[in-house]
Amino acid sequence: MQLNHYNSNFKKQIFPITVICDNVTNAPNIGSLFRIADAFGIEKLIFCGVDIPLGKRMTKTSRSTEKYVNHSLEDNIETQIKTLKANNYYLIALEISENSQPITEFKLQTSQPIALILGDENFGVSEAILEQVDAIVHINMFGNNSSMNVVQATSIALYEITKQLNAV
Predict the structure, then answer these.
(1) pLDDT, tens digit, for every residue of 59-109?
(2) Helix (H), strand (E) at residue 64
């Protein structure tokens, strides 16, 4: 018999992880990020930007998770980065860059709360943000493309981070 949320034995837990989305504006992606945030028990989801669509197209994908995932809409990611730094968060950017390391080799060595920073769907995490983070991780790509959808990448990153947090 297939398990569902009524008969599964998954232990509910909240991880000290905040996901910050910089100009993620595609409604289906936003809805999927709510589902991923719920699935991985993250503490908060922050959407930064001016035109974040939280309407019908988003809720079609979110499957009502926006009703119980702690989230906020903020205009400016820089303000959020400063606030998280002031609150002793360990900042991780998910981006392929000259200084990034494969997420499979990344070892969390902190007891600080974590902020996972996601970039714009077309342009990624900005250079200005990359200069402010504690770590930059990427997902190795083995095909012809050099990136993947923000939701799939976030899923992989949260899987790895929560796996490491559970091992402690």
Answers:
(1) 999 999 999 999 999 999 999 999 999 999 999 999 999 999 999 999 999
(2) none
Ramachandran angles phi, psi of 138, nearest 5°: -135, 165
What is the model's pLDDT at position 101?
97
Residue count (the chain): 168
The two structure tokens encoding residue 81? 């980065």
| Measured CA angle at 161 (ends 58, 65), to 5 deg | 25
For residues 168 and 162, give the distance between their C-alpha atoms in angstroms, rounded to a whole number: 10
- Annotate 106-135 with b (16+ C-beta within 10 A) or e (fewer): bebeeeebbbbbbbbbeebbbeebbeebeb
Residue 23 φ/ψ region, left for φ over 0, alpha for ψ in the -120 to 50 degree band, beta for the rest = left
User: Of the candidates 151, 158, 148, 115, which has an alpha carbon nearest to the alpha carbon of residue 32?
Assistant: 151
Whether the CA torsion 143, 148, 151, 157 is positive or negative: it is positive
